[in-house]
Amino acid sequence: MIKLLFVCHGNICRSPMAEFVMRDICTKKGIDAYIESAATSTEEIGNGVHYKTAAILNSIGIDCSKKHARRITHSDYEKFDLIFGMDSANIHNMVRYWGDPEHKIHLLTEFSSDGKRDISDPWYTGDFESAYKDIRECCEELSVYIKNLN
Question: Which residue of 21, 123, 145, 147 is 20 to 30 Å from 110, comparing CA positions?
């Protein structure tokens, strides 16, 4: 079983979207994976998924109502095989927090058709659909990569 962690600033928009989309993809493709998401900040701890993220997930049949934001912990680095940041600021904060001696930390868009770039934060842009499309594409590509590891 592979263990994946998706990380963004607050754990209410992009990283829970990636967590639930990737979990759905893995279930449908028969990939044995344990998947969570977390924040680099403490700003949203305990809050539920942003209502616009929840609406997108609900529209594709995914319930995220039990998810609450949490911050990354020191033990997360050991627990997870691969850790994905949504943007370069997330990567910077994770490397500052953990280091990355085992090279587990990656920008999620490493698994996209147009390479490394940030997934825009819909908290600021208001464009949750674009974030979803980017995350969906990356998670689909990531699932192919993971399936090929076995």
Answer: 123
Domain count along the chain: 1
Q: What is the pLDDT along the chain (150 residues), one digit of tens a residue?
A: 999 999 999 999 999 999 999 999 999 999 999 999 999 999 999 999 999 999 999 999 999 999 999 999 999 999 999 999 999 999 999 999 999 999 999 999 999 888 778 999 999 999 999 999 999 999 999 999 998 886
Residue 41, domain CATH: 3.40.50.2300
Residues 6+ apart with CB under 8 A from 51: none
Closest of 125, 116, 52, 53 to residue 84, by C-alpha: 116
Q: How far is residue 104's CA from residue 92's CA, in Å, rounded to a whole number?
A: 13
Determine the Cα–Cα distance for residues 101 and 51; give it in Å rounded to an integer. Answer: 36
Q: Of 13, 14, 26, 64, which one is the catalytic site residue?
A: 14
Q: Which of 23, 26, 64, 121 is catalytic?
A: 121
pTM (global) more than 0.90: yes
Let me know if 26 is a catalytic residue.
no
The residue segments making up the domain with residue 125 are 2-149
Tokens of 79: 């627990």
71 is catalytic: no
